[in-house]
UniProtKB/TrEMBL annotation:
GO terms for molecular function: ATP binding; protein serine/threonine kinase activity. SUPFAM superfamilies: Protein kinase-like (PK-like). ATP binds at residue 252. Residues 220-500 form the Protein kinase domain. This is Protein kinase. The chain crosses the membrane at residues 32-51, 57-76, 118-136, 143-163, 183-202. It holds the Pfam family Pkinase. Residues 514-568 are annotated as: Disordered. Keywords: ATP-binding, Kinase, Membrane, Nucleotide-binding, Transferase, Transmembrane, Transmembrane helix. The keyword Isomerase does not apply.
Amino acid sequence: MPHSDPPGHAAPLGTQLLAEHFRADVAAREAAVTRFISLIASLFIISTLSLGARIGWPRALSVAGLCAFFALYYGWQTRMLRRGWFHPALHWINVGLETSTGAYLFVCDIAFGTVEQALTNPMAVLWSATIVLAALRGNRHLALFAGGVVAAETVLLYALLAWPRLAEPIPLMFTPPLIALRATYYFITGWLAAMVASFLTHRAEEALQAIREKDLLGKYFLHERLGVGGMAEVFRATYSPEGGFEKVVAVKRILPAYAEDEDFVTLFRREAELGSLLCHPNIVQVLDVGRFGDTYFMAMEYIEGLSLRELLKSHGPLPPEVVAYLGAELGEALDYVHRRTSSEGIPLNLVHRDVNPPNILLSRIGEVKLGDFGVARAAIHVRLTEADRVRGKLGYLAPEQARGQPFDGRADLFALGLTLHEALTGRRVFQGEDASDMVRGEPPPFLVRPSVHRPDVPAELDAAIMGLLQWRMMERTPRGHQLREQLCAMTGALAPHPHGQRELARIVQEALAHKGGRAPARSSEQVTRLEPTPLRTREEEPTAVLPGGSVLANGPMAAVAREETRED
């Protein structure tokens, strides 16, 4: 059995679990061994008696008698063990009996044959088998004990019984050095068997530990890691509480190094609290939040698809009808967020503050989901950001947000305008070196209509996006539902519904098939499962100091099935 730890030193969880299993299962394992030996001994009785005329009946009856003893003894012991009786010394006694079998046969060979027969009889196989059988009991000390006993028996039998009966000249293979070498081999066999038993036990401990780490509160089993950021990591997980019910979810977990950071834990819990208040088809749903060990986790809706950032990297600029559909869906989501009230009916004045392509999730059937409310702000919460620090991603901030001035939901709409502009043109409006332009009083000269870069953009879509990108907050489109009304007014092949959604589903399926090395599905109904791809480390948006505040990069995306790398 696994060794106990010294006082004050707790064993790893896997070791504790395995030790508990061994304690509970030791009688069952011993019963399996005794049943096996009883069966083999019974078969040996028949085979030995059938050879009685050839090996001599005295020898055959002696061996058959030993086999009968083993069959009866281990058969009785099997019945007792199955009734629940067990003593810790039992397997040591049994190993001693099993290793003595070779000594008994050695004596029989000398008594009914010659010393040369005794020394050449293939007892090595039998003795080695008893050593391995001892190791199968799951205790490396038993294997060492069996190897030591067999080695000692070899030396003593040779010295006391064989050596006095050997006639000169003694063959080389019967000389003391060779017999000592044989005994050494037996001991080495025991040591190797003990090493194998220890190795298997250690691997079992690691497996138990890995399973335990993946099993959160008995409800969530973690699979592959989807992404990791600076302070948290995201896993695909299976929720299976009881009764065979299973649901695939995404689990976001704080990295152990930040589990004691009170500010970050508070932000994490606030994200979960805000997420629990938001129930909308265009928002990633928060399903559960809890603590496991020293860290916190959050279970969320799992989106079988990819993010807008990854789609733009693989496909490039999107068709106008797809961008119109994205704008309509996200406008509705943001309108819901901005109008949300608490359970007491108090307006939350909620602002997402981090609308950008990595936080927009696209499913293979054309669903659009807004995720990651990690830096969202509600008026009912105490502001956790430090003085003069502005949270969000560089390149997707509204001017008033970048300057550290008061802002509201229209800052999210400005970020949405930048995102839709990028989806149409394939280029970010604000590159890293142009970030300081966001704090100007007037719009920079490169903030132009999407149609300047892409002439096929319809005028209605052009106007809707530029309405979101008005530099002065008072001139900007005030509400997300107004954006949706503008975009849904588009008709024909450019209509967001159903043409935009259908085209988005087709593009997403092609992108997923390309990444997985498969041919794209011809319809969304033909695809039922998203195969995982190797993890790619996500790099955060750059952090920069701007007049009026510092822009902080956000953590990892909550429910995306593919984590992104930062756009170069």
